[in-house]
Amino acid sequence: MKLVVLAIVSAVACACGAPKPEVQIASSAGEAGYAAAYPARFSAADKDVDAIAAEARTGMGELAGYPAQIADSDWKVVRGAYQRADAAGRGRAYAEGAAEDRAVRKFFDEERDDIGRRITNSVNAAVTKEVSGVEVDVSGTVAFSLKDGVTKRLEKRLEASNEAQLFVERQGAAVGKKDADKLVEQIDDLSRTSYLVFIAYPQQRLLVTRMRAEAKDVTDTLDAEIESEGARCADPALAKDDKKACEQRVADLMSSRAALDQAVGAYARTEEGMLAEQDKLMKEYDEAFGALLDAVDQKIEETPPTK
């Protein structure tokens, strides 16, 4: 009986401790809309692989100059800030904040002109009414204020997810007044570099690999849709305007089909190559960050003991 009870307890314990699998999301490769947009999205995703690596290496290259930019702070506190910034960049809170930041920036960049135009028209109308019908144009001011406001609020939201920033805020006089802004900037940049290396690049690698695996299904979807729409366009009963729209859709689908061949057909990047690049990035980062901490440790040793 004891053995049975122990077996049950052990099974329950194992079940409770077992990691929960990630939500499985079905591919949309069989959907015409997704397939039509796929070539452009795949090309953009592929370019982002190199862009992430390049930005990460730029950030790593700046780490060596950090100590020289700090003049009047407790070096032990500075070291603690750097360590927390590195850890934050690898954490879920920062990763989720960065994903939100990227999504909002992408939306704003794509929709900024239309949003700005709508706001400007409303403001112009209101101001014109207030000044007795004299036409007023505030488009330049509105566009600048809108972009500036969105950018600054996004920066603040991302900082709020960074434990290193909260750590620095609590240190008071241990962080010199002249160093405060520079240390905050360094923390932002260090956390982002850590995030790019340990989260953004691996995520982008997985995205490109997943999308590459969809290429055959996307091809089949586009071919089937072109055939289906072509048959519909040939229907003599189709109204003139509908026929024109149908033909335009076929032309767009064929354009996507050609772009697909160009984007994926001779694709040279491999999963193995991206994994090797990922390992290389992580090694380079560890070396650069280790050198930064060594430089700070040297500063700590050179600092006279407090009386």
Can you give the helix content as a percent range? over 70%
Order of helices and strands: HHHHHHHHHH
Low-pLDDT stretches: 1-15
Shape: flat
Mean pLDDT: 84
Approximate strand percentage: under 5%
Task: Count the E strands.
Answer: 0
Write the layout of secondary structure elements.
Blueprint: H1 2-17, H2 32-63, H3 75-89, H4 92-130, H5 139-160, H6 163-169, H7 177-213, H8 215-233, H9 240-264, H10 271-302
Helix pairs in contact: 2-7, 2-8, 2-9, 2-10, 3-6, 3-7, 3-10, 4-5, 7-10, 8-9
Tell me what the structure shows.
This protein is mainly alpha-helical. The protein has helices at 2-17, 32-63, 75-89, 92-130, 139-160, 163-169, 177-213, 215-233, 240-264, 271-302. It is built from ten helices and no strands. The longest helix is centred in the middle third of the chain and has 39 residues, at 92-130. The chain is flat, with a radius of gyration of 27 Å. The relative contact order is 0.15. The model is unreliable at 1-15 (pLDDT under 50).
